[in-house]
Every structure is written in structure tokens, then in C-alpha cells.
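Hi everyone,

Forwarding the result from last night's run.
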Amino acid sequence: MPAGSKTDPLLAKAKPISASVITYLRRKKTLRERAFAAGERNPNMVNAGDMNGSGNLMDFLDEPFPDVGTYEDFHTIDWLREKSRDTDRHRKITSKSKESIWEFIKSLLDAWSGWVVMLLIGLLAGTLAGVIDLAVDWMTDLKEGVCLFAFWYSHEQCCWTSNETTFDDRDKCPRWQKWSELLVSQSEGASAYILNYFLYIMWALCFAFLAVSLVRVFAPYACGSGIPEIKTILSGFIIRGYLGKWTLLIKTVTLVLVVSSGLSLGKEGPLVHVACCCGNFFSSLFSKYSKNEGKRREVLSAAAAAGVSVAFGAPIGGVLFSLEEVSYYFPLKTLWRSFFAALVAAFTLRSINPFGNSRLVLFYVEYHTPWYMAELFPFILLGVFGGLWGTLFIRCNIAWCRRRKTTRLGKYPVLEVIVITAITAVIAYPNPYTRRSTSELISELFNDCGALESSQLCDYINDPNMTRPVDDIPDRPAGPGVYTAMWQLALALVFKIVITIFTFGMKIPSGLFIPSMAVGAMAGRMVGIGVEQLAYHHHDWIIFRNWCRPGADCVTPGLYAMVGAAACLGGVTRMTVSLVVIMFELTGGLEYIVPLMAAAVTSKWVADAFGKEGIYEAHIHLNGYPFLDVKDEFTHRTLATDVMRPRRGEAPLSVLTQDSMTVEDVETLIKETDYNGFPVVVSKDSERLIGFAQRRELILAIKNARQRQDGVVSNSIVYFTEDPPELPPNSPHPLKLRRILNLSPFTVTDHTPMETVVDIFRKLGLRQCLVTRSGRLLGIITKKDVLRHMAQMANQDPESIMFN
């Protein structure tokens, strides 16, 4: 220190503290002088600012300190507080931007940070989706054979590069060899079939075992679809690690493994989880989102849209999916950014071109026949089937998952995966429609039968005198290949229905979109072939007479498969608008939007008749997540006083007083209870409400004060008022905690209808609200109390809500 300079006596007595605190103390010097003056006016009652010459330390917590505003794991965020904090931050940046050019540039960077995050999410999500698609194609084909000159090529890629492949044998090429050809030099016969069968099962078991082992050891949160948890997180729940870097890495790797193993699951739902992990990673790089859980959830909503965009090649459908199915809070700004993220993700995927057809869509179809009004009846029947299938699947799957959670079965996740994989592989291999990947199956079922198709489904008896163009082939009688395919499809349909019930929910990444679509596509294709043959053989019936003349191309079985896929997916998930948009983006069949709408609405009506919950909501309730669904209606005539705590016969509510409790009293209250926060009242006699203090912030405030503020001891008075209380001489320093006090907690009267309270919790995203009468505190209602009450009113177990 330079000679002649004087040391501030306050700083000389204080413990070593940071430069920022020293600056703060000097800035508060005038407050100390006022405190001394107050002490001189009343020598008997000393103001808290006059103790040991350290008056300015009492306002130490007026400045922010680390970790305030954050939340503990498995707790719900306070949407109102997050919104208020973001408004304050924005107001501060706006006011500072007028001070200098540098501050103005910083304000522009802050404004553009949201778009930068969306760009990065789209790029990474699209890249990961493209890599996953390429890896799945290769590893799926690896179960049956290998490309000799480049083992990293899939069957299709290997044959593309071969000059020896003919059109008639386009599925066979010398460069691609099955395992039997490579190992025993036999392509036909019983021994070759058995060897290929055995290696198919072994590859499937290897992939599945590796996947479940990686999930169990490195990232337990990487299992399942991820959409139920994403919905819960977007509603304001904290699940630490669910969107972490390890989860992102392991889910990406294991998703390739499980889809390649041939299990009845898809990659579309998990891709939403992967995209949200990308969103969480990039939002952590910007303080605007990393320090505000409400703003972070806006990023995650946009990331979910990008995930569906790359899963289906449906950017608009992705935005609508995020809006309709996943998001809890979706302002207009998030809609624009979701659209941008979905656009970037789709463009990135298109640049990678994983399908090799220069198209973004997964199942591109090109039908040459319009649909007719009389076909609405079978379309609606497919909608009924989809609703019934959705109901059956949800009830059976939830029953199986509950059994898994409550019995010893849940203790052996690896064994369960191995057994289900073995059963799937053993039954799937003999049937060509279950042996191939589910995406290839759906693509074949959607296709129209042209002159160049070699599928069994297109084995019709052709008229040798036909002179029509290739794209306008008339309806023809079915050949033996079609009837064989019908039997195989029927067996595959039963197998898919049963095995998907046991597969979804295992401790591996598992999506439900593709298996549900496969069930509907198989049922729809069989119905379509039936209607086609009925129209061909009975074209003189009144229902066919006006639109199906002999020799005309009347019925398109592939369209029925597409409608059936939409119906079954809608029955399971209860999506409507986003489902229809995803389906016509997925296939390019914009002309057939009305049949898709009819099937989707019918499916939802039928499924809702048996229960309002979709599969994701059912799994949310099964896991006990605190999720208030905006679609549910509360019609019971109960009041806030019926739900609030404490109830009659219970201990009184734990509260803090504004200026009469010591640090030790507060710490004892925190130690003896597990509440997330405490109301602050004037006194325990009056119980006039002052505000609300969060448990975590109380702990952090006291901890920081003990470390940084000299003189704070267990006997120090804690006060939440603006001015310190008057204390006797030689009393220890008081601790001011007004900064962490919420002075405007949401309150309702004891006679407020619970219907209104539930609506308030849904629309404002509250953690808790206080119940008062004439300003006097009576009790508290938390989100958990609301969920328990709703479960009790629905004759369910109220203790099924496990989390805080």
C-alpha cells in the first residue's frame, strides 16, 4: 500500500474477501455513517448497524451470490420467477446498451444468441440423424451378409457400385455375399439356411447385449423413448443428467445397436431425446439460457421440433408436434425459432442424403389414382382399428411395465433384453416381412405396384393385351404371390402387435412411432388388397358402379397402408393435426390429406372412448412424474381449504418470522423439515403474510454469510424487512435476507374453487400457492398436493406421485 494511505478500519477487521466485495463495502460507506448516527440518537437501544463498526455488512446479501435461483434435482421450477428474472435481465441490458458502443454490441449479441443456438442445434441434430441412418442401414444388413470389397457398405450401397448387377437380379450381386456363401460357399440348401439363421440370431443378441450394457453402465437415462420425460421436463420439472453429454453419446450409439438388432422399436422418439440433449448442451454455453430454466425450456421445445424434423424428414410436422404433443409453454417467438431449427436440421440431413434417393422424406410415394368418396368407409374402419389397437397396446404395455417395476423382473434388465431379442430374432427370420427392417417394410407396404416392382405384393395376373402406360396399370386379379404375402402379413401383424407390447419400455432406447405405423400399414395393405379385389370381381355393384369401370385403376392398396399407419399411430399417441402433417410430409401424399384426417380423428375418438391418456401420458403417470396435463379437465366441486396443508389434526404450518428468529432457529427448521420453502409472516401470533423464502436459497444465503460476513453467528437475528430491527447492545450482527424473499407470492383465499386453483397451476406453472383469509396465512397448496387431489378424485392412488 502506498505511503500515507489510510486503511479503512472496517476492512482491517474483516476477514480476507474478494476485490468485488471490497468495492461493494466502500460503496456502502454512507450506510455505516447513518447507522452510527442512529446509535448516537438512542444510546440504550443500539441499531444493528453499529455493532463492531461493521454496519455495512448487514446488507451483504443485497448483492447476488452463487447458485441462487437454481433448483435441486427432482424439483419443479417457478415459471413466474424465471419470467420475472428474464425481464429484469432484458431491462438491464437495454438500459446499458445506451451507455457505450460496446454495450450496444453486447445487446445485439444477446438478441441473436437464440438464433445461434437454433442454428447449432439444427446442424448437430441433422448430422447425428444422418450418421445414425447410415450406421443402421449397414449394421442391419451385416446380420445377413457382408460386402467383399468394402465391408462398411450396406447391401444396397454394395450393389450400386457393382457393374455386374442385372435388373432381374438387382437384389443379388457378386460383391455382396451372405454369411453362408462366405463361410461354407453355399447359398442354397438347408445347411446354408440354418447357418444364416444362426448368425442372424447371434448378431441380434450381440447388438442388444452391447446396447443394454452401455446404457446400464454409462447412462441409465438413455433408455426408453424419452418423450414422457421430455414432456415432464418442459412442464418445469428438473431431472439432472437426463439431457447430459453422456446421455447424448450413449443414446446415439445404442440407438444404432438396438434398431439394427431387429427389435420391434423405432428411432424416431429417441431422436427427439437426442435433439433435446443437443439443445441442452448448446444452451449451457450461453448465460441467457444456462441461468434461466424457463428460457432453457424454450430452447428444448425448439430442439424437440428439430428431432421430429430429422426423424421423419418433416420440418413443419416437427414444429406442430412440439406445439401439440410435447411443449408446455410455447410462445410465438419459440414457434419461429422452432421452425428455423427444424429447417436447419432438415437441410443438414438432406445434405448428408442417408437414404441415397436425393429426397428428405423417408417413405416417398407417388400414387396415380385419386381417392373416391366411397373409400371413406374403409378409411374410417381403419381409424376404428387404430383406436382399438392404441387402447389395447396402452393397457397391455402399462400393465407389463407396472409388473416390471413391482416384481423381481425389474432387477434383471439385461436378461429381459436378451430374452426378448432372442424371441424376436427366432420368430422374425422365417418371415420375410419381419426379417427386414421395419422402415423397409413400411416403405414396401406404402408403394404402389408399378410394372417394375418385384415384390410379392405386386404379383398380379397381367393381361397380355394390355397397352396402357406404365403409370396407369388397371386393377388386376391377384396372383399366388399376393395370397402368400397376405398370409405372411397376417402372421407378421399378430407378431408385431404382441412383441411390441413387451419391447417398449425395456432398458434400451426404444421408439414407438415406427412399430405403430408398421402395425397399421400391414392392416391397411391387407384391407386395400381386399377392397381392390372386391372392386375388380364385383365392379357392377352399386358402390363401385360410378367410379370403378372394368379395366380402370380404381383402388390403390398402398394408400390404405398409409391411412392405416396414421390411424394406429394416432391411436397410440392421440396426435391429430401434427400426425396428419407428418404423414403427408413423410410420404409426399398431399392429395390424400382428407383420408388421413378422417382416419386420425376416428382413431382418436375411438381411443378416447376407452381412456383419455395417450401412451406418453400413461408412462408419465406410471413413473409418478408431477405433470399437470392441460388436456385434462377438473370438474369436482372442492375448495382450496379441502386440499391445503396443514389439515385438521396436523401440526401447524412451518413459517419464518420477519425479524425475530435467529440463524440457529432457521437452520433447525431447515434440518427438521423437508419443505421446499417457508412462508414469512410478521409474527406467529398475527400470521400476517409478508412473503415466501425458498429452502435452497435460505441454505445458500446462510452458508455464504457465514463464510464472507464477519460477525454472523448462530445467535444472529435473521430479518427480512428493509430496515434492521433495534437490538440490545453487544448483540451479534443481524443477517439481512430480504433479497431472497419473494414479496409477491401467489395467494388464493380458502374458498377458491379447486377448478380455478388447478387452472392457475397449469397456466402459470406455479410450484406452490399460499392460502389466506383477510391477509392472514392459513396454509399452502403445492403442485404435488394438486396432483394427489386429482388422483384421489379419479379413484387412483394419491401416493403414486413420487417426486416433489
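DSSP finds 31 helices and 14 strands in the chain.

Cheers,
N.
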